[in-house]
Amino acid sequence: MSIRDLAQTIAARAQADAETSWTARLLANPDKAAEKFGEEAVEAIIEATKGDAARLTSEAADVVYHLLVMCAAHGVTLDAIEAELARRTAQSGLQEKASR
Ligand SMILES: N=c1c2ncn([C@@H]3O[C@H](COP(=O)(O)OP(=O)(O)OP(=O)(O)O)[C@@H](O)[C@H]3O)c2ncn1[C@@H]1O[C@H](COP(=O)(O)O)[C@@H](O)[C@H]1O
């Protein structure tokens, strides 16, 4: 599944029943969505430091999903994130750091 398709599924789940949809449950509780994103990020860090690529792949998928849900819970869309990324393409990360 592409990240764009996943974002569309998450947006559609805003109308879903929290009894049957994990996404709907998190969208109804933005603080829980943020907490789950943090948990998944830590789990991904642990797998990265262990050097287990297969487990990191699984945790990375959890991180991407929960990041999109956390953002959706605050009205931040994938389009907005992509626009911010596009704005940054003209400048390297090191140039940006030096300009602060
Ligand atoms: N990509 C995901 C996805 N990744 C992870 N998860 C769920 O995130 C939840 C939290 O993960 P954890 O490993 O923390 O689960 P846990 O150990 O039970 O959590 P704790 O109770 O211990 O806190 C689990 O229920 C996972 O199944 C996801 N749930 C949904 N999606 C996507 O969202 C779509 C819609 O899902 P629903 O909204 O549930 O219909 C799905 O078809 C998928 O494409």
Automatic annotation (TrEMBL):
Belongs to the PRA-PH family. PANTHER family: HISTIDINE BIOSYNTHESIS BIFUNCTIONAL PROTEIN, HISTIDINE BIOSYNTHESIS BIFUNCTIONAL PROTEIN HIS7. GO terms for biological process: L-histidine biosynthetic process. It comes from the Bacteria. Its EC number is 3.6.1.31. Coiled coil: none annotated. It catalyses: 1-(5-phospho-beta-D-ribosyl)-ATP + H2O = 1-(5-phospho-beta-D-ribosyl)-5'-AMP + diphosphate + H(+). InterPro entries: HisE, PRib-ATP_PPHydrolase-like. This is phosphoribosyl-ATP diphosphatase. Pathway: Amino-acid biosynthesis; L-histidine biosynthesis; L-histidine from 5-phospho-alpha-D-ribose 1-diphosphate: step 2/9. GO terms for molecular function: ATP binding; phosphoribosyl-ATP diphosphatase activity. It is an enzyme of class 3 (hydrolase). It holds the Pfam family PRA-PH. Keywords: Amino-acid biosynthesis, ATP-binding, Histidine biosynthesis, Hydrolase, Nucleotide-binding.
